[in-house]
Design brief:
This protein has 480 residues and is α/β, with parallel strands linked by helices. The chain folds into 2 domains: 255 residues, Rossmann fold, CATH 3.40.50; 185 residues, Rossmann fold, CATH 3.40.50. 49% of the residues lie in helices and 13% in strands. The protein contains 22 helices and 14 strands. The protein has a 6-stranded parallel sheet, sandwiched between helices. Helix 15 runs parallel beside helix 16, helix 15 packs across helix 20 and helix 20 packs across helix 21. The longest helix has 24 residues. The chain is globular. The relative contact order is 0.11. About 1% of the residues have low confidence.
């Protein structure tokens, strides 16, 4: 969302203010400061999160893999407390348009009070939002199947897509508090001026058009937004890196970069499951053995769990594994955060294993990588359908069950299944080669989309022109 805001600000006559909490601002402030120093009209307005009012430790303002479930409602409560302050800011800043994340549905009413358009931002694929709408409108499919793993069709979509009940989010299968929140989100989306996605027409054009029909609003794909704004290494290496760890370990950086540069083009598998995932030690063992047995070089971003029992179980095995693969020069482990943009664009990377988080999917396609898909939570299983069934640039590892973002889950994907998927993506088989060719074609399309005359570039220009016209009309009609 920040990259999209930066892309807006790079167009003449557009002035951007990002409103967020102080803790969240640390994740991207360095990028905003660099843009501002280059003369780009963009700034951050950070507000204090009311941690003490909602009985939260100071500094917990967002979610990560270690956020306890009982703290989640308190974070939402804190955001609700900030609503009047943010509404006042909209007035003081004389906003001409409000672009807000879908989890702030109240902003559609705030925009209406000011007589300005509200645009909803989705950190997800167009397909995933269309799939949710399909389940709401034709929701009986998953209720009619006999078992949890029996397939049913997502009705009314541009492609015939099948899923099982196990792959659906819990709030769809059985109403809970999140179901009510999603209902509010979808209602506010239908009352918004339009929606923006980090996608591009050549990737999801059919679903961009379907979204317009399903929700009855406008829709613009403006991506890949990272390619608009992260042009040099300083942008790429610090993207998503919090200030508290902003001083990058130069020795570590030199280590993985030297290791990648020593490898043949397209020979390395990149393995990463995002910042919100955590695996039990039993799953880490299976992944490690699959990677070691694959015969392919790999670089693996590993999260350390804060669960003491799990940590003790995994520590010894993983340390031995790391020592073994480094000594054989077969693998490289990065613990914690990794500069993903720089790694993905290294010529030695030939494919990746991903949890199907939308940012990672788009970044992988931007550099033309085929994927082993391992969806876990949120809208990941919908994204897998796009990658595997629609675009045919990925192969599923076989994970069958959706889980919450801060849970280990029940099932363990075995090393044989992981190895099979890796060999399909990285091996010399004809089908894998055709998949890699298709992935490279999407990389070419992604680059063209943001160039002058490209689909995403045209969408940005069109949206800005519309917003200017709306402002002129408002001035004519109301003198404001």
């Amino acid at each position: 969302m920040v990259d999209m805001a930066r892309a807006f600000a790079m167009h003449g006559g557009v002035d951007v203010t990002i409103i967020t909490t102080s803790g969240n601002a640390t994740i991207f402030q360095s990028s905003i400061d660099r843009d501002s120093s280059r003369g780009v009209p963009i700034r951050t307005h950070a507000i204090k999160f009311p941690a003490l009012q909602v009985d939260l430790p100071v500094g917990i303002e967002t979610f990560n893999a270690d956020t306890p479930l009982d703290l989640s409602p308190k974070i939402y409560e804190g955001l609700a407390i900030l609503q009047p302050e943010i509404e006042k800011l909209f007035e003081e800043l004389k906003a001409d348009c409000i672009v807000s994340d879908m989890f702030h549905p109240w902003t559609v009413d705030a925009a209406a009070k000011l007589g300005v358009p509200r645009i909803v931002f989705y950190a997800a694929s167009c397909l995933s939002r269309c799939a949710v709408h399909s389940l709401e409108q034709h929701g009986s499919g998953h209720k009619k199947v006999v078992s949890d793993d029996e397939k049913f069709i997502l009705e009314g979509l541009p492609h015939v897509l099948q899923m099982s009940r196990l792959q659906l989010p819990d709030w769809i299968k059985k109403p809970n508090g999140y179901t009510y929140l999603m209902s509010m989100i979808n209602d506010s989306a239908k009352r918004s001026y339009g929606a923006v996605f980090n996608s591009f027409f050549e990737l999801e054009g059919a679903y961009e058009e379907h979204y317009k029909e399903a929700y009855g609003t406008k829709c613009w794909s403006l991506g890949p937004v990272s390619m608009w704004v992260n042009k040099d290494d300083s942008d790429k290496i610090q993207r998503g890196l919090q200030e508290k760890v902003l001083v990058v370990d130069e020795e570590e950086e030199e280590g993985w970069l030297q290791w990648l540069n020593s490898k043949k083009e397209g020979s390395v598998l990149y393995v990463s499951f995002g910042s919100l995932n955590k695996f039990p030690s039993s799953q880490l063992v299976e992944i490690a053995h699959a990677l070691e047995n694959s015969g392919h070089d790999f670089i693996w971003v590993v999260r350390k769990t804060n669960n003491d029992d799990e940590h003790n179980k995994e520590l010894g095995f993983m340390e031995e594994f790391e020592e073994r693969v480094r000594s054989s020069n077969r693998g490289y482990l990065i613990w914690g955060w990794a500069p993903q943009l720089l790694i993905l664009e290294n010529p030695s990377i030939g494919g990746m294993v991903t949890h199907c988080g939308w940012n990672t999917v788009v970044e992988s396609m931007s550099v033309g990588l085929a994927m082993v898909t391992w969806p876990l939570f949120a809208e990941h299983f919908f994204n897998e359908k796009l990658v595997v069934d629609v675009l045919r640039i990925g192969v599923s590892v076989g994970n069958k069950e959706w889980r919450n973002w801060n849970e280990f889950g029940i099932g363990v994907v075995k090393r044989e299944e992981i190895g099979r998927a890796i060999e399909f993506v990285m091996g010399c088989g004809e089908e894998g080669e055709e998949m890699r060719v298709r992935a490279k074609a999407f990389s070419v399309a992604a680059k063209k989309a943001i160039e002058v005359g490209g689909t995403s570039h045209a969408n940005v220009v069109e949206l800005i022109q519309e917003l200017r016209s709306l402002k002129v009309q408002r001035v004519i009609n109301y003198g404001i």
